[in-house]
Amino acid sequence: MSSADIRALLEKEFPNSEISIQEGYHNEIEVVSAAFEGVSAVKRQQMVYKPLTELITGGTVHAVKISALTPAEKK
Fold it and tell me: What does the buried/exposed string (b/e) look like for 30-42 if buried means 16 or more CB atoms within 10 Å of the residue's CB?
C-alpha cells in the first residue's frame, strides 16, 4: 500500500483537509482538518484510524503515528 493509496482513503474521509504522510517502518500521518474542532485527542485519533482499520488489522500497514490537528493548531 503506497502513501498515495493511504492519502486517497483519508481524503475521502476528510475532504478539504491537509494530509501529509511519511512512509517508513512507522508511517507518520498528519491530518489537519476543521472536522477536529471541539473533538478530544482520543476521538481524533479514532477518526483518522477508522478508514485505515482494515489495512492495519490485515497487516498491509504496520505501525502508524497519527497527528490530528485543527487548522488553528497547525499555525
Answer: bbbbebbeeeeee
Q: Whose CA is closest to 16, among 33, 37, 36, 39?
A: 33
Query: Could you read off the pLDDT of 8-64 as tens digits, one per residue?
Result: 999 999 999 999 999 877 889 999 999 999 999 999 999 999 999 988 888 888 788
Residue 41 has, within 13 A of its CA and on its CB side, a CA count of: 3
Main-chain dihedrals φ then ψ at residue 20, nearest 5 degrees: -130, 140
Please tell me the chain's helix, strand, coil percentages from 3-state DSSP, rounded to the nearest 5.
Answer: 45, 25, 30
Predicted model pTM: 0.90
pLDDT at position 51: 94
User: d(Cα 18, Cα 57) in Å, to the nearest integer?
Assistant: 25
